[in-house]
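All the exercises in this workshop are built on plain-text protein records. There is nothing in a record beyond a sequence line and a structure line. A learned vocabulary of local backbone shapes supplies the integers on the structure line. The question running through the whole workshop is how a given chain folds. Here is such a record, shown just as it appears in the course material:

***
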Amino acid sequence: MPGMPHEPVRTPDEGSLEGLIAGLEEELAEVRAELRHQQHRARRAEGEVRRSRIRADELQTALQEKQEQFLEMLSRLQVREEQAVRRASELAEQTREAEDARGHAEEAERRLRRLIAEAGRLLGSTLDYHETLESLARLAAPELGDWCIIDVLDEHGRVERVAASGPERAQILARRLVEECEPGGDYGPQRALGGERRPMTRPVDDELLEAVACNPELVGPLRELGLGSALVLPLLAREQLLGTMTLLGGPEREGYGEDEILLAQELARRAAAAVDNSRLYDAALAGNRAKSEFLAVMSHELRTPLSAIIGYSDLLRGGVAGEINEKQEQQLSRIRASADHLLELIEEILTFSQLEAGKAELDSEPLDPAEVTAEVVELVRPLAERKGLELTNRGEATVEIVADARKLRQILLNLIANGIKFTDEGGVNVVLEPVGDRVRWRVTDTGIGIDPENIDEIFTPFWQVEQSRTRRNDGSGLGLTVARGLAQLMGGSLEVESEVGVGTTFTVVLPARTPESEGVQG
């Protein structure tokens, strides 16, 4: 066996051939055994090598598969990276677009605010819609189009060209577009809108140019401008078509976006409101003038027969037609009292109509305010005594003023009588005092007071605290309106303070010299 010490070969005769052969055979056997052992080991080693090769092949196969998987994963990662890069680029582009869009939106919003603010300023500056719409056209033309043309329908449905504004170089044409359009011509809202009542975007063609030009001679000059797009907007107020605003863009303008249309609609809405408000105001003024004229005429007409009634009643009471008994005297006194009351109402209505029509005049003269106040207090004292009220006159002005004595008496009479009317217990106190270069009257009562929500209403014509038909106190509802109007006419003021259940104070302040008394000598 390998590694084992060889034992000496024993032979019967070491020198003999047989012994040599036996030793050789024995060594040969050992060599063969060693050879078999080595062959066995070689076979085992070869199996190990074969198995190692198989394992190596398997590992190489697995490695190749892993490599292929890695390469495939790497390829996918590269694809995803490229996709991520593209997505990042798209997001960056979208972000830029969003930033640009936001910038445009903010600029559009600022532009809208500026336009609306400027339009509001223009529309609030005057009630003459012709002037307003001319300014609005000049505002809209550079902002929303090269041209802005505004047509208005009058109350009879006739068209009036109010404004046309265009580029600086075309001002002559703009003036012709207004001046050469006769009212009621075959142009304007109906043709431009095609019967619709909504904003219309349309290309500029000959049909539109003929509607806009209103004069065949102006179609050619308009065509030469190369106008490309148009936006026609109705002017609507209270569901009525009042006209149109037509915006015309040059050849570089492809059309009108949603934001521009909304902005133009807002301007058109405001323009329509300006026209409508102006017309309503004119109608109100006309109605007011008619009312004032009617009241003035009726006051004069009523005063003539009333003067006759007062005159004849005085004659009867004086015994012109014979002696009268006590009962007849009472009846005539009632007639005179009623006639006097009616005369006061007529005078009040007449004064109100004059104030409303701006025809009230001052007849100023030097006067003692304390003397006028005492005169009025004594005049109304019987009214206070009949209700058991105390009427006091305190304070004196030591200055002389120049004013209209008749109108001052009317102011004080209205205020003191009003205090007595709405006071059932306590009384009315009148205080007169100088305040610098002015004179102040304070008329304070202990009556029912005025609810805070009605404070602003008491100076409204024909308004009364007791609105029902069964109210206890009579009157036209013009007394306080006339009193304030007369105070303001004389350059002064009339204010009120009141607390419900406590009472009311009216304060009149007049200058020492009224506005129309500068030339009056004391």
